[in-house]
Design brief:
Largest sheet: 4 strands, antiparallel
Order of helices and strands: EEEEEEEH
Number of helices: 1
Strand content: over 45%
Number of strands: 7
Radius of gyration: 28 Å
Helix content: under 10%
Structural class: mainly beta
Shape: elongated
Length: 163
């Protein structure tokens, strides 16, 4: 004999790693690039038709010296993004809509992987990675034994242990 159990489970998942190259122009003749940091990362999930996107933005702070290392500047730029996240169903295929339960995770928050300059242009590489899980209802089929176990429950068990 079998029973069916209706439950929620991960029915699809996906991942995407993004490497962005950002170029910033300055009015200065750069001597050295001194540092870069990415802050204020915000993001959310958006569905369009059967596609899943991560929308968001982050702010890049970069620091450089100029005029033969006698002066320095700290600048910032904000970047918006909209990345489609590919996914695959495990078994059950469902229609994705605004009511579909989608969990998203930031595996690698936006961070600077390299920074260089050419004349008055700073080139920064930013790496980030996202993962999604699509949650849906699915059925489990469980085999049930026909054997009925006829045992009496000892209600005095706890009392016996205390003595």
């Amino acid at each position: 004999m079998y029973r069916e159990i209706l439950t929620k489970a991960i029915i699809a998942n996906g991942t995407k790693e993004i490497n962005d190259t950002k170029e910033m122009l300055t009015n200065d003749s750069i001597s050295k690039v001194l540092g870069c940091y990415v802050l204020n990362h915000i993001h959310n999930i958006v569905t369009k038709n059967q596609d899943i996107y991560i929308n968001g933005s982050y702010q890049v702070y970069y620091w450089y010296s100029f005029e033969n290392n006698t002066k320095c500047a700290l600048c910032d730029s904000t970047y918006e993004f909209c990345d489609q996240i590919p996914y695959e169903f495990t078994l059950d295929k469902i229609e994705i809509d605004d009511k579909t339960e989608i969990k998203h995770y930031v595996s690698i928050p936006p961070s600077c992987t390299s920074m260089k300059f050419e004349d008055n242009k700073i080139i920064i590489n930013i790496k980030r990675k996202y993962e999604i899980d699509i949650i849906g209802e699915t059925k489990l089929k469980v085999k049930i034994d026909d054997v009925i176990i006829d045992q009496k429950i000892n209600t005095e068990y706890v009392k016996e242990l205390k003595q």
